[in-house]
Amino acid sequence: MASSNEEILAGLAEIVNEETGLATEAVELDKSFTEDLDIDSISMMTIVVNAEEKFGVRIPDEEVKNLKTVGDAVSFIAGAQA
Amino acid sequence: MTRKVVITGLGATTPIGGDVPTMWNNALKGVSGARTLEDDWVAKYELPVHFAARCSTPALDVLSRVEAKRMDPSTQFGVIAAREAWADAGITDIDQDRLAVAFATGIGGVWTLLEAWDTLKEKGPRRVLPMTVPMLMPNGVAAAVSLDLGARAGAHTPVSACASGTEAMHLGLDLIRSGKADVVMCGGAEAAIHPMPLAAFASMQALSRRNDEPERASRPYDTARDGFVMGEGAGALVLEAEEHALARGARIYGELAGTSVTADAYHITAPDPEGLGATRALKAAMFDGRIQAEDVVHVNAHATSTPVGDKPEYIALRAALGKHVDNVAVSATKSQMGHLLGASGAVEAVLTVLAVHDRKAPVTINLENQDPEIPLDVVTSARDLPAGNIVALSNSFGFGGHNAVIAVRSV
To answer: Residue B103 in contact with residue B187, Cβ under 8 Å?
Structure first.
């Protein structure tokens, strides 16, 4: 079932919080995973795999490098669900 | 002139205490950390052994959830013990290029390895966590401690089964004496209370099966001993060049006077029945520390409570100390906390240092009928050690024929 962008953002924020301890409010659409949220590549892969399970989508490895901001990830997941 | 090395910080998390003061207090009282395992996997896999000695303080009570997620349980215990030892040492100003880590494990990240294998089988490769490799590698604990402290003079992981923790002390002493470091965080960590290692140790008949009385199962030197009790946890000690410790006015617990490592080259698991390798290790550690038999007042024995293991150690002690062995207060602390495998030598080193510093030998519990073939003076209620210059030894032996001994001298 497709989720709204708000639902995807909230779900993603929970996953990021679980992996890194960052407050969910810090996970905003314009935030860069590496620059702003200080998420390394290993954490990023964990977040990706958890997001795949949560949202029932597949995020190919070659796509992960294009997900620079939280907004990029939300858009990709929304598109993959559609 | 050999550099003198002293111990200035202690840390531990064990089945009889989640920190050093609690552990030491219990070690002098004589308590058992062994309990029946409530986990559903005991029945699911029909394990022949239903009990073990878990850490009394869960790692998640000490570490944050996010911190713990990235560490195997063995590394969690190691980091907890190392942080306590570091805070205890009170070092505030250190050249990080002169700070090393020697942190041992017997098995490494066995929980991580086996859970990842379960995940692969049940959910496929995509779900195997990207942190799996750094969490399962045996050097994971040394690496985590090095990161935590900013230790840059090498992070080493001696692996010699149940002698690993003591071998870490041997390496630490060497690193300082040879001038490669001024301070070394030494220790050992283990977390193997998982159904597979329990099944494997049980399969080789190494574990006690006293399922109806877990607290009475670990009974070194007792005629009714029937195997060891699996424990878990970590011990950590800050070794420091004496001049470095004196320059900062540090509290000094004792001197790590000598250490040694030998190999039996006899059998992959059975101890040499004549204890020749252990004898050579004891003699070598005493030679290394310029120690006479008469200086030795206390031994923290390896004594795991297996039918075959306890006696060769006695033979070795008699061979190394001669008649003086009758005057030595021997403690078998695995009677209380079980066998922490690669962490046991580190935790027992902490106990040995405290015995010398506080001049008290910890208790051996469950000794009801002492094996007549092992006529040692076993400490069954906390005993004062003499005043003056004293030395205590701690032995560790591991599958593979590894023998390691440390000698701690009072200051």
So the answer is: yes
